[in-house]
Amino acid sequence: MSAPKKIRLDKIGKELVLQYPDSEFSLPAEYLRVYSPSAEVRGHGIGEGKLVSGKLHVGIDRIAAAGRYALQIFFDDGHDSGIYTWEYLRELCDQKERKWEDYLQRLAREGQGRDPDESPVKFIG
């Protein structure tokens, strides 16, 4: 998979804009953060992934090339260990709607939320 033609960090909009020859995509920082390819999020093996919640307000401080094959994204919550290959970034672009819906459903099942300032209420009884 080849690199995007252009990459733009929109700090105010909190998104990464990737332009390919056939299309342009905007990936929100929250989406990129919760789908980080890092071991912290994905785990070290199948089924070890961690649900990341409370990242509604996360932003991107900066991005850097990781060789000729990937980007490293530095989030304002201190997370910076994921290396986003060109192939994985395109997957996140192409499957954005499905992946986002999967994430929202998973949050709901786990009683978690996107906003770190909200605490889920569980009724006992």
UniProtKB/TrEMBL annotation:
Signal peptide: none
Keywords: Iron, Metal-binding
Taxonomic superkingdom: Bacteria
Single GO term (MF): metal ion binding
InterPro entries: GBBH-like_N, GBBH-like_N_sf
Domain Gamma-butyrobetaine hydroxylase-like N-terminal residues, every copy: 7-90
Pfam entry (one): GBBH-like_N
PANTHER family per UniProt: OS02G0197800 PROTEIN (PTHR35303)
Protein's recorded name: DUF971 domain-containing protein
